[in-house]
């Protein structure tokens, strides 16, 4: 009897094959309790390894990390997916980062999308979104990830504001990561709850707007009751030669709108290129007007006055040798 009690007390914390088997899970050092049981790691071994000061730790319910230090960002992401269960995929800001976007709304935590019949709830750093319409995931950096249009819509629903949604969507479209048509199709198949910001942004994108500054300019023009220009239209000479792609262009007046988004960061060479471009436009009978994002934000009335005066002065004076091709 004594020998048996000693044998049980001195039994190793894991079987000899555990370490080899765990190494082949290839899940960034994270596993669920179900996976561990399949590998022969019982509840006693698991409790022993996750004791205070032990070599493992519990990251989320039923989800464990094979070391006791701070988890990496990748390990937290893997743990979130394993916790949410089969069919879960990343969405929201984490998905936007994986797709390589720079302008990602700073919403905390990791967001995962699951089918509506999944009853796993949000916990700790994981936010679980349920949906009747779960898309087919893409494999991005080794993680199942919602397609970018869906991730942008879910980011809006999670609480990103209008400016944040503008920045993310404009970048995605401008860099060719996502089309306006794909975004439009995505919102047609989803609930209208919580997506008013992205609906407004899609209207801006359909109008040709491709940056936050252009969206701000569009708001200023609409507030001032001014006609909307063609946004990012391609200007061609009569023989088809490319002339310019200005931020905004009023074809019936020849007035060009430019937004100098780098007004405080222009090198002398940049400045000369900017002046040469505007002189080139003027030499073809166009009338360039330039404003900074700061002017759009802080002195919109002045911006409206200058544009209104130019549209009145040059009304009906558009150069006939220039053709404007709208974006798209």
Low-confidence stretches: 1-17
List the total number of helices: 14
Number of strands: 15
Shape: elongated
End-to-end gap: 84 Å
Give the amount of beta strand, in percent: 15-25%
Average predicted confidence as pLDDT: 90
Percentage of helical residues? 40-55%
Strand order of the largest sheet: 9-12-13-14
- The Rg value, from CA coordinates, equals 28 Å
Structural class: alpha+beta
Q: SSE order, as H and E?
A: HHEHHEEHEHEEEEHHHHHEEEEEHEHHE
- Major sheet summary line: 4 strands, mixed
Molecular structure report:
The chain is an alpha+beta fold and 328 residues long. It is 42% helix and 17% strand. The protein contains 14 helices and 15 strands. It has helices at 2-9, 18-23, 33-38, 43-49, 73-84, 92-98, 148-157, 162-174, 180-188, 196-206, 212-223, 268-283, 293-298, 300-313, and strands spanning 30-32, 57-60, 63-65, 89-91, 110-115, 126-131, 138-140, 143-145, 230-231, 234-237, 242-244, 248-250, 255-259, 287-291, 322-325. The strands form five sheets. Strands 9-12-13-14 form a four-stranded mixed beta sheet, sandwiched between helices. A three-stranded antiparallel beta sheet has the order 1-3-2. Strands 4-5-6 form a three-stranded mixed beta sheet. Helix 12 links the parallel strand 13 (255-259) and strand 14. Helix 8 crosses helix 10 (196-206).
